[in-house]
Each structure stands twice: as structure tokens, then as C-alpha cells.
Amino acid sequence: MMQELLQYFFSGITNGAIYAIIALGFSMLFNSTGLINFAQGEFVMLGALGLITCSRGLNLPLPVAFLVTVIGVSVVGLLLERLAIRSVRKPHPIVLVIITVGASILLKGMGMLEWGKDAYSAPPFSAHSSFELAGATLLPQTLWILASLLIIVVGLQFFYRKTMTGKAMQACAISKRAASLLGIPSERMVLLAFALSTAMGGIGGILIAPITMSSYDMGTMLGLKGFCAAMLGGLGSSWGSIAGGLLLGILEAFGVGFVSSSLKDAIAFILLLLILYVRPTGLFGAKAVQRF
Amino acid sequence: MRYRGSAFVAVLVIMGLIVWGISPTLCWSKETYKIGGIFSITGPASFLGDPEKKSMEMVVEEINKKGGIDGHLLEAVIYDSEGDPTKAVLAANKLISKDGVIAVIGPSNTPPTLAIVPILEKAKIPLISCAAGIKITEPVKPYTFKTAQSDVLAVRTIYQHMQKKGIKKVGILTVENAFGESGKEQLQKQAPESGIEVIQAETFGGKDTDMTPQLTKIRSAKPDAIICWGTNPGPAVVAKNVKQMNIDIPLYQSHGVASPKFIELAGDAANGILLPTGKILVAQQLPDTDPQKQVLFKYIGEFEKLYNMPVSGFGGYAYDAMYILAEALRGSEGDRAKIRDGIEKVTGHVGVSGTFNFSPEEHNGLGADAFVMVEIENGTWKLLGE
């Protein structure tokens, strides 16, 4: 029994860490712009398939492929902001959210044209065999994912708390008008937030590529799960996103183990409904969530 | 205005005369047989529809080169269903009312086939489907036939192999779609008669990224083997997870992954996997006594020469359907009831997918010899001996 519990747990934290990285992207954009980008999952897809193109097609070494992919994905994020979000005449939140939904369909279509409908697989980051821990197996890739998650969240905290740009970004979120009166270039901050949050999605995709199969339509479900995780932890809170992601992943794994595997996806959405009903601010959300 | 109108009519009449005059099919030979084709040429099932369309066109050309059937040339009218039942229905109606076809081949998947069966039954037009679902020919409908192997045969082939290996208890892991559900149903239905017990049944979503929880659950039930039933990419993830978890019992996969793409996706984890497949994947390794070997070599050679792309087992469904139809067309003079009767009389027809023996009770015509068990070894298929 212990062995199975541990195995479910490992599987849960692997998926959970991925959800957490995607949730961080949601959270970060919300933090600086008050926007929810429903195309976040598609950036995960771009990250995964981009890595495969860079490392398999162009034969770049992994660190270079990683960097090229992250930069490429954030450039797409910048283009999205410039072309679709910025140009809206009346930027009402609901309009912007619908634009991101449209962008996700567009990106998925472009992904299909570029990479076709087949799935691809990527080699793991390190060629170790899996570790045995009390009869349960732990993949080296899981450790990579957890380490990346930690680095990202510490980096983000540092960025928000200690750097001028990070503080300026948060100021923009609190009040765009007041921020610009203080001389903060709010438009540039929004652009930066888009670049950073989409890059986060790209990193999520790169990390997940070796443990699963990547195809043009992988993003939608991952994006929704990431959104659930972000809501669960409280939109806007970095630690909340991580807790929400891991919690969601672990609950899914245990749900499969102890209830039924056909309930796996339902668990995330039941949780989302519950959290919206019982505690709309999420587990860690301090700010009142504004409803449109 | 009136003058211009009559001039237009005159031009039309002259053009009509020219076309009538030079058209060889109308002047020199008997009426052409129009045969409809509905395939998923684009869309998610294009890996089925595209080779099927190409194979059908290839056979039509070949028959026409030999002078057609009883002097009638063949003409293929092919529409794309995109794997969508609604589009298949539209195409079927168009084939019946606009094109006036005498028989239809396709569609490539089960849901579109089931959608058009009632239409063709009503119009009394023979349909030879290229889809695998058992519901197409069971119960038998007068005008509906199919050439693809059913899951029933695939499951039987796996269970026969397990009996030989002395495997008694299995855990199954199936994908949550029509293919997986049908496989699960057959696996559970045929288990008792083969002396096999399904001790754990789990499912996974087609887009899931990790199947370790399901496999953990199956492992804790201690089966002798695991059967995974799905189409790419899920089964490749399962294969990887099984290797990562060091589960050392045999892993069986379905014929749904019998393509080089699976080996590419699963990589090293594919080695050692057992699966049933049509003989086309292992045509080189078949013994010379196998009646299908000649047919397979002919099909592979012609297809690869004409289209310059590697052959797949799926195109074979349309290839077999065309040749079976051609056999039935002989002497029918285009009478649809006679064609239908003709198909039921086809026996011992050696095709790409197996040896077909049709009868009024059997509208698929394939036996258990349509599948062979293969093992993936060093990234290629290895035929397992009897």
C-alpha cells in the first residue's frame, strides 16, 4: 500500500508542477494587467513543439534549444499583445478575455499547419534511468521540473520585491492611471508582463515535452488545468499558484488511484466549481477578485 | 436582347455537339460504371483516408487500362468526409442523387459509416466500408459490407497468443473514445471463453500526459500481462511509463498503433511490445506458402511506385474493396441488386487484409488469419511464429 501511495504522489507532483508553472503564467499576467489569458495553454504547446523542432530538427544542444524556444514563445506573446490586445479601442476586460480565447484558436490552427496533426516525442533532459524509492519510481525529469519550478518562483519573488521594474509592474496592476502619473511607462509594463507570462507557458511546455507526447492540440486541456490551479491557489499569488498546481496534480493522481480513472479530468473542474463557490479568492488570494 | 439570347443558345448547342462528338466514352464504349468513394482525406483521420483514396484511384486506373469490366470503364467519384458523419451524409446524398453511382466505397471511420448506412440501404446501393467497427456488419444489413478487420479478430488473436504463453490474468488500459470503448467491450466479452480473467480495467484520456497512476493500480492487482488499447499518442506514453516503472510483465498493444509512428514516439520503450497487425507490416517475413504474400508484394510495389510514399495497411481496405466490387460487377450489367448478390458470392478472395469469404450471413468475410502477432524488436516488427 505504501508503495502505491508513494507512486501516486510522485505522479501527482510531476503533473502538479507542470500545472503550477502554467498557473504562474496566468497569475503573473493577472498580477500586472488584471487580464486572464486563455491562450496560455497554447503557449505551452508552442514551447513543447518549439523545443522538439530546435533539438530534433535543428540539432541544437539542449540549453541553446531551451533559450531559443523561450525567446521565440515570448516573441509570439509580444506580437499577441501588440496586434490583438493593444489595438482594441474599448479595452473592456470581457472583450480582452474573448480576444485571448480567439488567439488560442488561432495559435492552435497555426500549430497544426506548422507541425501537422501527428504527435512528437522529445528526449529527456538527462539520460539517467528512473530512481527507485521504497518500490516507487521517480523520473529524473520530475526532479528537473521541480527544480525549475523552484528557480522560477524564487526569481519571480526577487523580481517583484527587489527590482524597480517589478515594483513598477505591480503598481500598474493596482492602478494604471496612478502609475502613469508617477512616470511609470505602463504600456511597456504590460508588454513585459505578456512576454514574461508567455515565456512561462513556453518553459512549462519545454519541461513537459520529454515526459509526454506533444501535438498541436495538447495546449487546451493543460491551459484549463493551469487555470484551475491558479484559481485554486488564488489568482495573483505566486505561492498560491504553486500550491494550487501541486494540490490539483496530487488530487488527480489519488482520484485515479482510489476512485476511477475516468474521473481524472472531472476532478479539476469539480474543484474549480467548489472553490468559486466556497472561496472565490482561492486558498491564498488576499485581494478580492473583481468579477466582470 | 432576344438576339443575344438565341446566339448564346446556339453556342451551347454547338459546344454540346463538339463534346458529344469527341467524347470516346459515349461514342465508342458502353456506359461507364460510376463508383462513389467517401474517405477522410483531410482532418484527424487523414492517415486512413488519404491512402484509401489513392489506392482506390490506383485500382480504377488499373482496371480501366485492362479495358474495364465487361467493356464498361470505371469512374471514381470521391468526396472528402473529413471524418465527420454530417459531411459523410451530405456526400452520400450527393453520390446518390447527383452522380448516380452504382456502389459506394468508404467511409474511413466507423461513425460516418454508421451515419450513411441507412441512406444507402434505403436507396439499395451496395456499400463496402473501410472502417473497423463491428456494428457495421453486425447485425447483417443487405447492402452493407466491410473490408477492414474488426476488433473482434484483433482481440481473438491476442487471447490466442496469451493462451499459448499461459497468461491467465490481465489488466487492461483503454482509451476513452469509440476505439477504446469497443476494444474494452471485446476484451471483456471474449475473456471468459479464452480462459482469461480481466482483473483490472482502467481508462485514460487521449491527451493525458502521464499514465503512472493507472499503471500503479494495475500493477498492484498483479496481472500476468497488460493490454493497452488505443491510438497514438496515448499508447506511446503507456509504453514509456511501463519501462520507467520497471514493470516486467508483457505489454500487449492493439492494432491501432501498428504504424512506424508508434515506434518513433515510444523510442526504446517500444521494444518487447506485442501486438496484432495486418500482414502488410511484415510482408517480407511471411513464409512463401502464405497466400497473401503475392498480393501484398503486388500492392506494395504498385503503390510505392505510383505515389512515391511508404505504404500503410489502411489503403489496403480500399484496395480490397475495389477488387471485391470488381469481381461482383462482372456480369451484373450495373444492376445494383445483382452487384449485392455478387459480393455475397465472393469467396476465397485473397486481399491485402486477409482472405475474404463472404456469404449472406457474413458481410466482413475475414477470418482469424487476417491478423498476425508481431513483436517490436530493435525498432522494427518481428513476425512471431505460429
Task: Explain what the structure shows.
- The complex is a heterodimer of chains A (292) and B (386).
- With 292 residues, chain A is mostly helical.
- Chain A has one domain: ABC transporter involved in vitamin B12 uptake, BtuC (Orthogonal Bundle), CATH 1.10.3470.
- Chain A is 72% helix and 3% strand.
- Chain B is an alpha/beta fold.
- Chain B has 2 domains: 30-149 and 293-353, Response regulator (Rossmann fold); 152-277 and 371-383, Response regulator (Rossmann fold), CATH 3.40.50.2300.
- In chain B, the strands form 4 sheets. A 5-stranded parallel sheet of chain B has the order 2-1-3-4-5. In chain B, strands 7-6-8-9 form a 4-stranded parallel sheet, with helices on both faces. Chain B has a 3-stranded antiparallel sheet with strand order 10-13-14.
- In chain B, helix 3 runs parallel beside helix 12 and helix 12 (315-329) crosses helix 13 (336-344).
- The termini of chain B are far apart.
- The interface between A and B is medium-sized, with 38 and 31 residues.
What topology emerges from the helices and strands here?
The complex is a heterodimer of chains A (292) and B (386).
Chain A: H1 2-33, H2 40-57, H3 62-85, H4 93-115, E1 120-121, E2 131-133, E3 136-138, H5 140-162, H6 164-174, H7 176-181, H8 186-208, E4 213-214, H9 219-233, H10 238-258, H11 264-278
Antiparallel strand pairs in A: 1-4, 2-3
Helix pairs in contact in A: 1-5, 1-6, 1-8, 1-9, 1-10, 2-3, 2-4, 2-8, 2-9, 3-8, 5-6, 6-8, 9-10, 9-11, 10-11
Chain B: H1 2-22, H2 24-27, E1 33-39, H3 46-65, E2 74-80, H4 85-99, E3 103-105, H5 110-123, E4 127-129, E5 144-146, H6 151-165, E6 169-175, H7 178-190, E7 197-204, H8 212-220, E8 225-229, H9 234-244, E9 251-253, H10 260-266, E10 274-277, H11 292-307, H12 315-329, H13 336-344, E11 349-350, E12 355-356, E13 372-377, E14 380-383
Helix pairs in contact in B: 3-12, 4-5, 6-7, 9-10, 12-13
